[in-house]
């Protein structure tokens, strides 16, 4: 730019009212130049006409220039620094300090570096002297670990505030880096320690993604499920489609609940094993959001198989008849209540068959209670062969049994009742005796949604009593006609 154009630019500048003093090339002592050349900080000093008055060796090395090439750069070095030239043009318009960060610079031969620094005007007694540009080569920091960026940003702030204390700040930066490298080493050691604890826990632990990928598992969990190592377990789940949870529907519901509620959820579930049958586990699960924003599920497993066995044993003792091994009165009442609710909800039908043995008291008194018990066991076994898997047989008293039959028609009830009578009237061989017992049967068909469990049992009991008063070894069906009046019980046709 010639003097005429420069004068025109200065005339239009907001700083044109200020006196301009020409900044001559500084005469610096040798030791000062040596110190500035040894700094990692690049320094460019321009006069009021944007001509270089000083450039240190760090800039020369950064640009890959030699001393004899410096003359060609007297006009402006910024065109070699890529985007920095645009920042400089913006600065010249208002002479406002410009800070720049992470500026990429292409130096030829596919070399790209990054710089950060500032451009600022220099004044003395309100006279504009020129421009100072300083920057650092941060290429190594950019290409290193992400956390070093924080230290570099701190360095930039320090450079902007305290340009007269650069050497001291550089030393401070080095100390900070050493300290944080030491912290990194300590953190790495802590992570290794946590990994050891993770794998030595007696509880099984693992981390899942919501779609079922197993990210991590400890040795306790892999051993619990029958695998030789956590890696073998992870390969089985992620590569072979092996499922840890025996009930996949429960797994899906639990996953949705964990993500929705965002708090610890505890459930009991069966887990699949590699070779054996499933085991019961108590599971504590909660969701975690990683630094990358990914939602994962952390789970802790405790083997409760023995506890479950004890619970099932206690449940069996409280709900099963100890002599015959079929449901007792308590379980029967619960099953009947549930069936009534279901039948009302879905407009279904079912029937209750009430059975009372004929002549059992005489057999029990004549041959003894031990023989009577064997008769009851034989009767229960014969009855089990006459019902379907969906039906329920229960012993509700000494020689009284009940059968809950789902989804059956009245005609089929008659055939079932006759088959039961034929089965139970056959002689029962115990030791050398072969006494016979009979059976009286009362049936109530659930065809009225207003009927309660107690009313159903009352009607079935009443029909059974009528069968017994008519000589036994027969069945009677109790029901309502369309008008709501009770029909006469229907006798069996033996």
From TrEMBL:
SUPFAM superfamilies: Nucleotide cyclase (SSF55073), PYP-like sensor domain (PAS domain) (SSF55785). InterPro entries: DGC-Regulatory_Protein, GGDEF_dom, Nucleotide_cyclase, PAS, PAS-like_dom_sf, Rev_trsase/Diguanyl_cyclase. GO terms for molecular function: catalytic activity. It holds the Pfam family PAS_9. Residues 28-70 form the PAS domain. SMART domains: GGDEF, PAS. This is Diguanylate cyclase with PAS/PAC sensor. It comes from Desulfonatronospira thiodismutans ASO3-1. The lineage of its organism: Bacteria, Pseudomonadati, Thermodesulfobacteriota, Desulfovibrionia, Desulfovibrionales.
């Amino acid at each position: 730019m010639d003097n005429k154009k420069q004068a025109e630019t200065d005339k239009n500048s907001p700083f044109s009212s200020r006196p301009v003093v020409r900044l001559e090339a500084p005469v610096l002592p040798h030791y000062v130049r040596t110190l500035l050349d040894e700094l990692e900080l690049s320094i460019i000093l321009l006069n009021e006409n944007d001509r270089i008055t000083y450039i240190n060796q760090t800039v020369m090395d950064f640009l890959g220039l030699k001393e004899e090439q410096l003359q060609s750069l007297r006009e402006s070095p910024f065109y070699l620094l890529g985007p920095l030239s645009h920042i400089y043009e913006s600065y010249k318009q208002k002479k406002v300090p410009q800070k720049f960060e992470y500026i990429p610079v292409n130096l030829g031969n596919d070399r790209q570096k990054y710089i950060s620094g500032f451009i600022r005007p220099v004044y003395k007694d309100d006279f504009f002297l020129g421009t100072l540009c300083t920057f650092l080569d941060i290429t190594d920091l950019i290409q290193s670990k992400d956390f070093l960026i924080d230290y570099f940003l701190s360095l930039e702030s320090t450079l902007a505030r305290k340009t007269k204390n650069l050497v001291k700040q550089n030393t401070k930066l080095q100390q900070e880096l050493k300290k944080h490298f030491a912290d990194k080493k300590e953190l790495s050691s802590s992570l290794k320690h946590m990994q050891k604890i993770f794998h030595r826990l007696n509880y099984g632990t693992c981390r899942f993604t919501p779609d079922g990928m197993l990210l991590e598992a400890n040795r306790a969990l892999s051993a619990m499920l029958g695998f030789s190592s956590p890696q073998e377990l992870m390969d089985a789940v992620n590569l072979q489609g092996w499922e840890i949870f025996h009930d996949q529907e429960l797994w899906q519901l639990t996953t949705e609940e964990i993500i929705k509620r965002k708090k610890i959820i505890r459930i009991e579930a069966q887990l699949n094993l590699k070779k054996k049958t499933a085991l019961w586990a108590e599971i504590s699960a909660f969701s975690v959001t990683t630094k990358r924003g990914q939602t994962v599920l952390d789970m802790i497993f405790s083997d409760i198989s023995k506890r479950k066995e004890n619970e099932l044993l206690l449940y069996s003792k409280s709900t099963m008849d100890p002599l015959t091994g079929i449901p007792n009165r308590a379980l029967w009442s619960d099953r009947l209540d549930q069936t009534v609710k279901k039948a009302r909800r879905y407009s279904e039908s079912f029937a209750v068959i009430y059975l009372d043995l004929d002549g059992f008291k005489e057999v029990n008194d004549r041959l003894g209670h031990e023989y009577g018990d064997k008769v009851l066991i034989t009767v229960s076994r014969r009855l089990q062969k006459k019902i379907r898997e969906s039906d329920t047989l229960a012993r509700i008293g000494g020689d009284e049994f009940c059968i809950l039959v789902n989804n059956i028609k009245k005609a089929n009830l008659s055939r079932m009742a006759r088959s039961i009578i034929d089965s139970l009237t056959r002689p029962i061989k115990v030791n050398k005796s072969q006494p016979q017992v009979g059976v009286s049967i009362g049936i109530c068909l659930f065809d009225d949604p207003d009927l309660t469990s107690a009313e159903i049992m009352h009607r079935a009991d009443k029909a059974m009593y009528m069968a017994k008063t008519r000589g036994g070894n027969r069945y009677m069906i109790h029901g309502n006609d369309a008008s709501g009046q009770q029909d006469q019980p229907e006798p069996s046709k033996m």
